[in-house]
Amino acid sequence: MIPYFFTVITMILWSRHSDKTGERKFHAALGPLGAICGLALFGLSTGLPLKIVGMTIALMGIYCFHGPFWSLPAQFLSEGAVAVALGTISSVGQLAGFFGPVVIGYLRSTTGNMNSSLYFLGGLLVLNSSLILTMRIPKDKKELA
């Protein structure tokens, strides 16, 4: 309960700041990078209090990503294309929801520890942030024409 309490507060503040500044790309990319720090703390710590802090930081970073990310397609796609993009993103997310636990379980069972799974998740978070940071988002939709 503790990690999710702080995560909800952080999500609201992060999304509010993104709305206030009008900036989406860096808000969406920085959350997962913060989550990597939380996963590292979780993996390196041995005591329960530090593991809870690490998990809290990781969840805050992962969930802060959602608000700014879901608003990105509307910044540079037409209305019809936004609907298709959101459906595609959601479908790929559902596939990840199935394959993610399978891969994590496989890594944990073959290596005998959870660290390989944390490295896998950290790598996916780096990929996530890298792809968002390399997006070219025009200031105005007219630039696309």
List keywords for this structure.
single chain; mainly alpha; 82% helix; 145 residues
Describe what this molecule looks like in 3D.
There is one protein chain. This protein is mainly alpha-helical and 145 residues long. It is 82% helix and 0% strand. It has seven helices and no strands. The protein has helices at residues 2-21, 25-44, 48-64, 66-71, 73-76, 79-111, 115-133.
Provide the gyration radius in Å: 17 Å
Q: How many individual helices?
A: 7
Q: Output the structural class.
A: mainly alpha
Shape: globular
Uncertain stretches: none
Distance between the termini: 48 Å
The proportion of residues forming helix, as a percent range, comes to over 70%
DSSP, total strands = 0
What is the average of the pLDDT values? 91
Q: What count of structural domains?
A: 1
Give a quick account of the main beta sheet: strands, pairing sense, barrel closure.
none
Strand content: under 5%
Order of helices and strands: HHHHHHH
